[in-house]
């Protein structure tokens, strides 16, 4: 028998990490096309910070969280995918800082027996994002030069690994020597430690590519990196924006792209997985990398449910590397 309440982390009004407060709400009731998941781990993503603070236009009150793992405890009457009670799953959803979450079956997957619930929660959003970036944002080719910003972060470590796996030369940016070592261990052939501005990156790219620039830049930092990203991309290269950790990129006069015929895109994972088929295609490819041991998920810390304020402080304070999880139950 499932409890009739759910324990959640709620943000009543946008604000700093202290806005994250534990509370109890009525347990969600799954719709006909949904399943109810008893959540084991919620993955933490930078977007949770942006939504909590109000930098993203998600209205408050809100329950943060975009992914998790756990066990199915109820299945809606029209749920697709053949899910049943007891299945171990990982999923993308909303409001996942909670012990029970109703999830649409479009974005949920049964975990292979040997994949733990920790890895499932750690992998599903950032793993699919990383595969989407290197396949669809810019299709990385053997011999390419690519720049990966925030290369020791959750997504950054995975993009660096995939870049190397696909035969590219990866140049990562990070803010500390400690992060640099981790980025190197995860596929970044060259790492630039950023102290003040990103001019050091431009100098390094010039040296390494004989002034030609890189084939692609994967930029999740946004405002602080955008000008350098445009400077280091080569003629006919691609700049893939996918995040705004430092703030939004200001409006751009697109005529500037004519200088090098640069392709500019701002990609979101969700636009790659609008149907179950699209989700499965990306998920299967990502899981194959995982199963062949070609992709390692670095879970750097698992926080207790009552420690959720600390995880946000650490993430926005640039203190973290790799993946962060909250143990829900
Ligand atoms: P990370 O673990 O990468 O954490 C963010 C990192 O950004 C920091 O550790 C820091 O690394 C770097 N950073 C640079 N400048 C700043 C700044 N001014 N403030 C804070 N951090 C800064 O987070 P995630 O892996 O969760 O996400 C990475 C990015 O990808 C985020 O921007 C996120 O929104 C985006 N994203 C986008 C998706 C999409 O579909 N478009 C999906 C998933 C994530 P350092 O100190 O080394 O510079």
UniProtKB/TrEMBL annotation:
Keyword Secreted among record annotations: no
Domain Enoyl reductase (ER) as annotated: residue spans: 15-326
GO cellular component annotations of the record: cytosol
A Pfam short name: ADH_zinc_N
Annotated keywords: NADP, Oxidoreductase
Recorded superkingdom: Eukaryota
This protein's record includes keyword Nucleus: no
Protein name listed in UniProt: Probable quinone oxidoreductase
InterPro entries to which the protein is assigned, alphabetical: ADH-like_C, ADH-like_N, ER, GroES-like_sf, NAD(P)-bd_dom_sf, QOR-like
MF term (GO), any: NADPH binding
């Amino acid at each position: 028998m499932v409890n009739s309440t759910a324990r959640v982390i709620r943000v009543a009004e946008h604000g700093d990490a202290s806005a994250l407060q534990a509370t109890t709400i009525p347990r969600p009731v799954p719709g006909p096309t949904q399943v109810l998941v008893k959540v084991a781990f919620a993955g933490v993503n930078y977007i949770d910070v942006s939504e909590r603070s109000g930098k993203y236009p998600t209205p408050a009150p809100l329950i943060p969280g975009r992914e998790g793992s756990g066990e199915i405890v109820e299945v809606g009457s029209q749920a697709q995918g053949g899910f049943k009670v007891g299945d171990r799953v990982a999923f993308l959803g909303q409001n996942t800082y909670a012990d029970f979450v109703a999830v649409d079956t479009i974005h949920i997957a049964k975990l292979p027996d040997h994949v733990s619930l920790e890895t499932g929660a750690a992998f599903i959003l950032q793993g699919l994002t990383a595969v989407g970036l290197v396949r669809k944002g810019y299709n990385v080719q053997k011999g390419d030069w690519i720049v990966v910003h925030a290369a020791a972060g959750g997504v950054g470590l995975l993009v660096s690994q995939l870049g190397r796996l696909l035969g590219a030369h990866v140049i990562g940016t990070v803010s500390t020597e400690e992060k640099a070592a981790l980025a190197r261990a995860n596929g970044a052939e060259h790492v630039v430690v950023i102290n003040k501005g990103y001019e050091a990156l431009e100098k390094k790219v010039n040296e390494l590519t004989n002034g030609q620039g890189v084939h692609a830049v994967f930029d999740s930092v946004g405002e602080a990196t955008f000008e350098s990203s445009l400077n280091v991309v080569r003629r006919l290269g691609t700049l893939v924006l996918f995040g705004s950790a430092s703030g939004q990129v200001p409006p751009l006069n697109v005529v500037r792209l004519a200088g090098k015929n640069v392709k500019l895109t701002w990609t979101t994972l969700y636009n790659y997985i609008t149907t179950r088929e699209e989700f499965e295609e990306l998920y299967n490819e990502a899981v194959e990398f995982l199963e062949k041991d070609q992709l390692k998920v670095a879970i750097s810390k698992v926080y207790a449910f009552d420690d959720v304020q600390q995880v946000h402080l650490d993430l926005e304070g640039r203190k973290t590397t790799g993946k962060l999880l909250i143990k829900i139950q």
